[in-house]
Amino acid sequence: MRSILAALILLVQFPVSAANLPRDFRFGVSTAAHQVEGNNSNSDWWQWEEIPGKIKNGQRSGIATDSWGHQDEDISNMKSLGVSVYRYSIEWAKVEPKEGVFDEKVLAQYSDQVDRLLRAGIEPMITLQHFTLPLWVKDHGGWDWDGIAGAFETYLTKVIPVFGKRVKYWITINEPMSMIAGGYMSDVFPPGVNNLSSIGTPMINMLRAHGRAYHRIHEILEKQNFTPMVGLAHNLIVLDPLHSYNLLEHYVTRRFSQIYNWAIPDALTTGEFKIFFPFMINAKADIPEAKNTQDFFGLNYYTRYRVKVNLFSKDKFEKVVTPGAPVNDLGWEIYPEGIARLLNQIQERFPQMPIWITENGIADADDHLRTKYIKEHLDQIADRIEAGVPVKGYCQWTLNDNFEWAEGFTAHFGFYSLDPKTLNRVPRQSAADFSEITRSVKMGLPIPRSREDQ
Ligand code: GCO
Question: From the CB of residue 57, how many other CB atoms can be counted at a distance below 10 Å?
Fold first, then answer.
């Protein structure tokens, strides 16, 4: 009776909309160890932050949000958001601070975290590598090191049995192409190589690491008669030419999209890696261990860029923002239609592969855009599900404001604002709005509309 009454109140309070997510659609929030835990002092990023100019305002990740010291509070806040999934990463540099030396206290900490989440009715979805590497791996050459796939397999062979059948969803690597674009095509991420022709080796090593991880995780857990779901979180970006009449911009856009968006996902199906850009890169490799190694497709979607070509300028190829488009605090275009376009492309390339939105979010310090941003993206997702695209869940980036890599703590993606000094978490209005959304969908109601959405 009470839920019917609650549903009626919601219907009156928020006039209904067309959006209809299935009742079993899952909601979550996403984080990453280096951005929330703090004290990741054996990692390449901790060292990278020490280089002057790398992090905005000279900030450091430091204690980050002290997530280990605020677990119960954060889990309680997840419950009030109405999420049933928590996607987060565990930190290789803390688990294996020295080559072959494993920290049993850290493993016990991560095991306890899984128990706390499960007791709260929240399912862990664990990422094994989210941008950071142990310093000893970096000293071997990082993703250029031909031994990294084996080292990654050794790390997870130690970790997976600690979690056992308590964790079903595993993401091996977060956003390979963000690490490639940031670390090998610019200098905003370690190792800061900034040379397009250098990207073949690290991409091939990431594919090898994922492939070996996929088979190893399945081997370990299937011995316990448990079938995991193993995938990878891809950062796909919608790319369109800046000028629709410019054939060269169309060509460059297509080529760059093939490299950035599809080379890795395609190789995880075919086992064949190939990237090509005239006069700059032509890399190929057979990677049989990577063939058919996605049980689901993890999609991190944020924005669209336009491709501008000017052969007479220093930067011949530029990614720019659509002129006049609405943007977030970082100047990223807000383009909800983009998630539908990408879901269609994923479905065309990998028919009926289950899809999880493993990240979607907005830097929006004063919270005036976040709810609308979420609803507009969920509307697009609901429409694609009704068209038959198997999207299983949506993990919002992120729970609390945290260390946003090169932006430091100056970018605010959280449902909860964070005072970096006191570590106080304060809910934004979008937190309450999101809990209305999750509650409505659970009751089989459409996503509630607020007045300004009309
Ligand atoms: C990424 C990472 C996250 C970011 C988030 C906001 O996609 O870059 O997965 O670590 O913090 O996306 O930029």
Answer: 8
Q: Which amino acid is at 196?
A: L
Q: Is 174 in the pocket of ligand 1 (CB under 6 A)?
A: yes
Q: Where are the domains of the chain?
A: 25-235+336-453
The minimum-distance atom of ligand 1 relative to the CA of 233 is 9
Q: What is the C-alpha separation between 332 and 309, in angstroms, rounded?
A: 20
Nearest CA to ligand 1 atom 5: 397
Architecture of domain 25-235+336-453: Alpha-Beta Barrel (3.20)
Query: Distance between CA atoms of 348 and 175, rounded to whole angstroms?
Result: 21
Atom of ligand 1 nearest to the CA of 405: 11
State if residue 261 touches ligand 1 by the CB under 6 angstroms criterion.
no
Instruction: Read off the pLDDT of residues 146-203 as tens digits, 9 standing for 90 and up.
Output: 999 999 999 999 999 999 999 999 999 999 999 999 999 999 999 999 999 999 999 9
How far is CA 262 from each of CA 177, 213, 222, 342, rounded to the nearest angstrom? 10, 20, 30, 11
Short-list 447, 427, 444, CA closest to 79: 427
Name the residue with the closest Cα to ligand 1, atom 13: 404
